[in-house]
């Protein structure tokens, strides 16, 4: 196969540099344009010294011209900046947007959390999402030329709970998700609460009471799995680690307890990137660092009448840039796993 | 006032050494016997080099004789070891047990989680616990000579949710608690999953689905607050930090949303160690390290129909040894705050 | 004794908030004015939530008037800002400067590292510094009204090496100091290399080859100990922890190996805040967090012909604000240890 | 090329599991036998869950028979256990020993640090080591069938200092190396000082005064570079991070300062895994996590008369298992960089 030219817009942020890390390991890809905003003219060697093979690359300005003759463009831009660039890229170029702009189908979900107009939605890039009819979201991604890559929290929460909803074994109105994220999930801009001195040795929530912008995305996905509306209470917390999300997800049991684990085994049996652990083993973000794998464990708490599912992922890999590469593979008819690590870096 | 002689049984563990740290700062206390098991004969300078003033103290064997002529004995012993020693200490000696042995009132709660016989229960050492009749648990502690110090998770979860139950604004049957703890909560014995290489950069749950022994204690406390049974889904997780618990606690809204925050303000207005933060500020374990303060924030998520309360505490201070000193003060008629830090160590 | 009114200029930085933490625990002190610059009008509850007793204090502007009728003013200001304020404070007010402005005696040492004019020097606030004649720096501090508080690295390196120089057992021309500091040493301003995502899991040097501004201060101190010039190669590194300095200090053996440890024992036998550990025990920053103690271990490497001394301190306590309080005690004729913790927070 | 069968003896330790991580990414390798001792019968999914593709592999006993028909065997065994197994493996099997047993050429260096008899020495697996005659150690590795993989500290210290010695610009008798290592360098066995609660937030030395077993290995290498004996003062410290070594290495300047940087540029210009950073950029262990790259920066401190070189590496990759794979490639005439990551995982 000929080499694909893949550019990255917003390469100095964490999502962008993770995309470059993965593209460097993809056998069918040649890294194309690497663009920034305030970082134009800087070398990747200064900005992202871990990307040694690209150390002498300079960031150029983010323009449609920068991506001329590209096969694929990955957008890792601030919220609201994707639509304009995407509109100027040819229709046959595959555009993968790591931002939130094109994820929400219903305008009302959008407007309750964002103050900009709702753009439109693109096929949603979570291949493993099981839908109410038993099909999977993967079907919408084969051959696509515009894909909205999921948020990092929604990826973990959705993969954790969708099988239970699709199987009808949990109730739609009392879902609780509490998730801990490493600091890279909050991006690269310097803020007081993200300073090392403030973070190390401390945990704290950010946003309590439903205000997080990922809530409607989780609800959209679980509603897709159930075939009817689901509401979610979501609390994100910041953990003293650079990468990783651990999502503890619970819903009220509304079916046969024995059917719960079976639903997960059935849904994910053939998925290369979703791993239901054997009973007695627990997900750990440290086991999936740099890997595109999500680890799950599920339990039924009959005493409390709830299903509890815990998911561990790398927020930058499966949670962002790995999902983009996975969708690239699907859209362009490559093997879905091409270039994607399933081995993590530990300890 | 004359100086109290206070001994610590199990001083080489984290709870015991934290008790010693606090006792060294208590103006009315003289540190008495310091005992261990496998560490007998070792100096505190080797075992707990942060306790500089006690560096030359040697640990002696844990026997009743070691505590002869003591006013107070703090037990920081493995599960099951407290009852025997306590029985051999005179009735007028104040015994504060940091273990689980005497916390649960109902035998049935005990036997569902422990395989030893249920001993009995002692007054429960959480002074700020508001009860269904509006009184507080503090009443049971004044003058007591045996006190069961609460577990670290139950302290956070109970202080987070009891006011809502006492005020009748949440429902008793869909309570979810997800809490992250630093590693000191798991004690000092060497285990593979507690090694630095395994913990740093990683989060993981331990026990999913209701099996944690702290669940019945949380349920007992919330039932005390409500005046009728409460069931709880509790998931503990291990965070890459040495100290601190962040507990995210949610319950179904069952009353006037406007009454929720008012219940917390009313309950904790005069409490020296429980701090409801102003709206817009979030609890952080890093703000209470070494301090006896619990920080709380409460929010009503009307969209999801749930009350969300987040609590931050130091698991070894307010979560264990600070609570013991607070109960010592109450039991012996000292000012409740004597010797207890409200200032944390940060950053 | 009447209560002293002590103000802090620059209270929103880490040195300033650590000074407040210690002052809150000092029995003879009342916290006076608390001033800032860009933070004027903010509450300490927002800026430093660990200082619970001061949560409702608002920062006021840093002016001489703010400190009217104060007994003591602690300056925790950016480099270059201390001189002007100090000049406007009455001569009988004790002024303790945590900045670098007044530390260097010789103008030439100053001008090789700073581009501002050399102000003058104040008595140097390291009481335990042993001088060539066997006296200690403490003598200059009793009754002083202006004191220059040492830098955090120089405190560790000086206490580690001065006894060997004063005893004449090491050579002055091949001193090497390599030190690791927690991130709080770099201050509170937000910089990319101090972000949690950049720091956690990583170590890096900052400045290699002698350019660090603390080098002349270390050399000045060791020259004081020896009575003739000493040159030092100093490399600071940034460690993934919020607090603490571990300084590994080596010098060429130039005397009787057996005299080395004896020199340390003699120098520090009666020092309440410097602890030479028993042979076989190693200093750890984790053992002195929040404490004013410096731990030392010394060894003679006869094979390499060098003396190696390792020092552990809390950079904000003994390395900055604790030293200020210690000098306050000395200057105002209080017991030197008053209000200063010798117990650390661990684990 | 046909696939090579590569087995790993001691696969449950950190060096062994890192070898497996790299072998999984090597295009010419098939993972053969995976052996342990106390872990025989356990699945890699339990022991090393990050190695997802090998999750169902069970560890078998470490015997010569287990490695029948293998092309390569990587030994990651405790000190002293390699010789016996190696002696039973056929001469034409490539054996790469990650332990210390075969590194030291001179018996006297061995016996001063080890209490077992000196076995013999194998070709030393540090290809980039420049020798006094300007050749490199790589020459000894092409076609070798027994290779002693260097220790993690010696790799960093040697690459940092050898060019200066080979160029004759530093003196042999006052070399100081102070290095910080992540906890994985201390191995996987559970010890109190390696517990997360003890390590996080703390730095400490382990061994002060020349007693570390890596000292003679560093001296051997630098003597090779200089062509005459070199003595080294080496102090290792433990840093609160799982991986990485930052080595600060200094030696007395003994030549033209301008020749120093040139020596490094010349030595490493064509090395794929050693990177001399541009002036003004600093090595960081966080930039080489999981990568086989060593970052260097060199400076001449004319004031102190010393050359200072700082090296950052991943102790498990270039410091151990990456070096083994690099030597495998050299020994078996594969491209030296085959299967070895030069991209790190960051942040």
From TrEMBL, chains A, B, C, D:
Keywords: Amino-acid biosynthesis, Arginine biosynthesis, Cytoplasm, NADP, Oxidoreductase. It holds the Pfam family Semialdhyde_dh. The active site is at 152. Transmembrane segments: none annotated. Pathway: Amino-acid biosynthesis; L-arginine biosynthesis; N(2)-acetyl-L-ornithine from L-glutamate: step 3/4. InterPro entries: AGPR, AGPR_AS, AGPR_dimerisation_dom, AGPR_type-1, NAD(P)-bd_dom_sf, Semialdehyde_DH_NAD-bd. It is an enzyme of class 1 (oxidoreductase). GO terms for molecular function: N-acetyl-gamma-glutamyl-phosphate reductase activity; NAD binding; NADP+ binding. Gene3D superfamilies: Dihydrodipicolinate Reductase, domain 2, NAD(P)-binding Rossmann-like Domain. PANTHER family: N-ACETYL-GAMMA-GLUTAMYL-PHOSPHATE REDUCTASE, CHLOROPLASTIC-RELATED, N-ACETYL-GAMMA-GLUTAMYL-PHOSPHATE REDUCTASE, CHLOROPLASTIC-RELATED-RELATED. This is N-acetyl-gamma-glutamyl-phosphate reductase. It comes from Barrientosiimonas humi. The gene is argC.
